[in-house]
Every structure is written in structure tokens, then in C-alpha cells.
Amino acid sequence: MTKLVIQRNDNTSSWYDTFHIKEKKGMTVLDALFHIQEKVDGSLCFRYSCRGAVCGSCAMLINRVPRLACKTQISTIKKEIINESNSNDVLLKNKEMDEFKEEILIEPLPLPNSNIIKDLVVDLEPFFDLVYSIKPWIDEGRHDNTDPNTLIEPAMHEKIDQFTNCILCSLCHSICPAFKHDEQYMGPATLAKAWRYYLDPRNDQESKNGLLNTINTENGVWGCDVVYKCVGICPKKVPPTKGILNLRDVIKK
Asked: Fewer CB within a 10 Å sphere, N or C end of the chain?
């Protein structure tokens, strides 16, 4: 049997409920949550969609580490608990976890400036407001589709793809230390998107200049602490810090 301790939340209070489930081979944390919701407590609320680590909807804290529940297997977490004392991974060395030894702790993602709607469901509107603030799209009316200069060469396509892989799961947002000293910081996901659209040759120079003006602030590219936590936590291997440093270099020129 596997013991899950889940943080519950409503409009007035927060508490922890404990559930015991029989683990099946390959069972993910999301599978376990479905089992609890369908067989034990139908009031348990959590967010999900694709179940395949594509949409980013099921982001949550699992043993105090931001992860995707659909990608995280119960067996993996149990191995981490066993090996935690010998681990060199700073994400796993957490004294606060002592009281939860031999248990899997599941909590809502701690997003800056966001409230918990219910149980594991967090309000994502502040996060997406930041992403939309840089206008992450190509205005088709501002460029000529027939212009050969707007064709994407394979080398540039590869550079862009590295950042296009972002699924907006907000894991990097939840772990970024810059928010501790600046609640208005744009965040790594937003700035990674900014670099992706700056690179895109289909974006005209006027749009690129406007993008740079938007992020050339203390709560933009200059707010990053450059500690690479966002890079380490990304489930899609997107390197936001790399994009931020590249944007700084462009602005300095």
C-alpha cells in the first residue's frame, strides 16, 4: 500500500487528508489522484488534460518538488524517499520533509501572486497575464509571407524549437527565486517566450524592438538571478536562463 498525504483547500481553510492506495505497476501520481477521486473521495479537485506531459495542466508539488503528476510515477517517488539521505540533489534535501518520510506529499503549486481555487487547483490567470504581456504571437499583417527573408532556415528552426517546446506548465514560475524580491518579475516562462519570438525571422524589426522595450526592465530580463533553477526543473528541457542571457546581450548592443 502507498500512503498519500494531500493538501486540501477551500475558501476558508487548508488541511491535509491521508489516503492509502494499492500501487499498480507504472502508476503515476495522476493515476493515484484519479483512483482517490473515483473510489474514495469524489470531492478531491485537481487539474489535468492530456495525461501525456504535453499540456502542463497537472503541475503540482510532489514531495515539495514541482512536477507534472502525469509524468511522475509512484515508484520513482518511493525510490527518492529511500535514497534521499544519500542524495546530492538539492531539490530533495529538505528538512521540512522529515515529518513526511515514507509518505508521498502532494500540494498545490506555489505560484507567485496566485490564489488556490480548491485543493490542488491554482489560479493560473496571473501567470498567463505575464506571458501575454509580451504579445507572444506573430502579427501576420506586419510581414510579407512571400519575402524569402522570412523563411526559417534549419539552423534557426533548431534554435527556436528549443524554446517553442515550452508547454506553459508554470513549474519554472513556481521555483524561481527572483519572485522573492520582486513580485512583479515577468518570470522565466515569459522571458523564454520573448527570446523565441525575438529569434523568429517572421517577426518584423519594429515588433522585435517593441518586445525588447517591454522586457528591458528591472522586473524583466534584469530581474533574473541567473541560478538556473528553471532550467533544472523544466520537463521539456527548455533553458529559460539561456534565453534571458541572450536577450541581455542583444539589449546591451
From this structure: C
Q: Are residues 129 and 93 in the same domain?
A: no
Q: Does a structural domain hold residue 118? A: no
Residue 107 to residue 82: CA distance in whole angstroms: 20
| Residue 37: other Cβ atoms inside 10 A | 15
Q: Is the pTM of this model over 0.85?
A: yes
Question: Rounded distance, CA 222 to CA 25, Å?
Answer: 46
CA–CA distances in Å: residue 238 to residues 71, 162, 163, 230: 16, 6, 6, 9
pLDDT tens figures, 129-157: 999 999 999 877 665 566 666 678 888 88
Q: Which residues of 110-139 are buried (b: 16+ CB within 10 A; e: fewer)?
A: bbbebebbebbbbebebbeebbeebebeee
Residue type, 50: C
> In the structure grid, which three cell numbers stand for residue 190, read together?
515569459
CB 23 within 8 A of CB 74: yes
Radius of gyration, alpha carbons of the chain: 20
User: 104 near 20, Cβ under 8 Å?
Assistant: no
Domain contains 239: yes
Tell me the pairing of strands 65-68 and 104-107: unpaired
